[in-house]
Specification:
With about 140 residues, the protein is mainly beta. The protein contains one helix and seven strands; from the N terminus they run E-E-E-E-H-E-E-E.
Length: about 140
């Protein structure tokens, strides 16, 4: 079966604020990504002519940018530096039944607000995911 390709225009990202209330951040967004990489351990030994590695731990982070909204900024600012991780749900192409749903918990580690003289006020943020990311389908 051939894969189905979709655009990101319907992307979905929701977070739980410090009070546990879920809010949809993607309503003001224009770029979101969940990045995953794997650390590697160098196991090269004497006599090897090339480096050798083994796979280590996975690492995930979330980046988001979009249009500034006071309601979102207030919630995000309250989450910045909070020792309790926030729950997230990310749907790369939307939250329609059957679409991929990536879920987990993360700490807000960076929040930026930009105000260029000739453009929109913008917001960007980064989150460090703690533990695993689960991949299911929206029901």
């Amino acid at each position: 079966m051939a894969p189905t390709f979709r655009t990101g225009k319907g992307a979905f990202l929701s977070l739980s604020d410090t009070g546990g209330t879920t809010f949809v951040l993607s309503s003001g967004g224009d770029d979101a990504s969940l990045n995953t990489n794997v650390e590697t351990a160098d196991v090269t030994k004497f006599g090897d002519n090339d480096r050798n590695y083994i796979a280590g731990l996975r690492n995930h982070d979330i980046s988001f940018s979009g249009h500034f909204a006071t309601t979102h900024e207030e919630k995000l600012r309250g989450m910045l530096g909070n020792s309790t991780a926030t729950n997230f749900v990310f749907g790369p192409h939307g939250n329609t039944t059957g679409y991929t749903s990536l879920t987990g918990a993360a700490h807000l580690t960076q929040l930026s607000i930009g105000a260029p003289v000739g453009d929109k006020v913008s917001v960007s943020m980064s989150m460090q995911v703690t533990a695993a990311v689960s991949s299911t389908k929206f029901a």
